[in-house]
Amino acid sequence: MTYYTKMNADLVIILSRDLPLITELSAAKLKQQPSIQLDTQKIQDMVLFSPNKLLLSIPDDKKVVLVDIETLHVLSEIVLQDNPRYICMTSAHLAASTLVNKHIQFIKVNRTTLEADTTVNVDVDVMGIAGYRNNLVVSYDPPGVKIIAKDGALIYKLDNTTAGREVFKYPRRIVTTSDDSIYVTDWGTNEITRLDFSLTILQTFSSSLLKVPLGIISLNRDQLLICSNDNNNILLIRPSTNSMTVLLDKQHGVEKPRYICFCKEQQKLYVAPAGKMILVYQLS
């Protein structure tokens, strides 16, 4: 079954030269490749499984699908008990997706197949999700962030009540980094909050460049890429200098970006806007 077609593109932009370490993201070229066009499905989130494969959550069909991005074919799909929201890899072959019914669904991911694993009930309306070591970090409504064990047991919690002030409005996507930091995007406050693994607030990032932040990835502990949805750009954030730089914008084909992935092995950046397309950029 083929869900995708390619779209022509011919655009060169500036990005990183130190590819394995990505030490300087402003010094090399990135060429826009043919985009991946979805025929019917609208994705909610995406995560890289392997250099050639993406996991996509498709809430309208209650599905998670495994896509070969070289052949543009769906290798496997799984129908869940309810609409999937956000998705992450918790280990090399285990994914976790938040569902709209206050559940987290674990999914075994093999080279060409998906298989339902355990389902965990949580007591809040879970949104974003990230794995760290043997635990999960989730955002939820009413607004807050929790660290939970894989069986759903609470480890730490931070919300507006425990903080004694408004920290979150609409916390959504989450990424964890190698220096034990958690980054949470919040499109209600137009901020990104950095936490440690006891959920102590370490930094808050805000700027006129940052409006409705959604997708976020970590390239290393001092370089993060953020989808600034309403400003139609991809931002580079450096926590060490508290700086924020526009990396891609509407001139580079970026409009209403929502999700982002980077493949170090193939030196490719994937950006999905609102709609049914994934933009592909090749570093060279």
Computed Rg: 18 Å
Helicity, as a percent range: under 10%
List low-confidence stretches.
Answer: 1-23
Helix and strand run = EEEEEEEEEEEEEEEHEEEEEEEEEEE
Strand content: over 45%
Averaged pLDDT: 88
Q: How many strands appear in the DSSP assignment? A: 26
Number of domains: 1
* CATH classification, class level: Mainly Beta
Question: Whole-Å distance between the termini?
Answer: 32 Å
Account of the 3D structure:
- There is one protein chain.
- A hairpin with a 5-residue loop joins strand 16 (171-176) and strand 17 (182-186).
- The radius of gyration is 18 Å and the shape is globular.
- The protein has a single domain, classed as Neuraminidase (6 Propeller), CATH 2.120.10.
- It has 1 helix and 26 strands.
- It has 284 residues and is an all-beta fold.
Lay out the secondary structure.
Blueprint: E1 4-7, E2 11-15, E3 28-38, E4 45-50, E5 53-58, E6 63-68, E7 73-79, E8 84-91, E9 94-99, E10 103-109, E11 114-121, E12 125-132, E13 135-141, E14 144-149, E15 154-159, H1 160-163, E16 171-176, E17 182-186, E18 191-195, E19 201-205, E20 213-220, E21 223-228, E22 233-238, E23 243-248, E24 257-263, E25 268-273, E26 277-283
Summarize the structure.
The chain is 1% helix and 59% strand. It is mostly beta strands.
Characteristics:
284 residues, mainly beta, Neuraminidase, six-stranded antiparallel beta sheet, four-stranded antiparallel beta sheet, 1% helix, globular
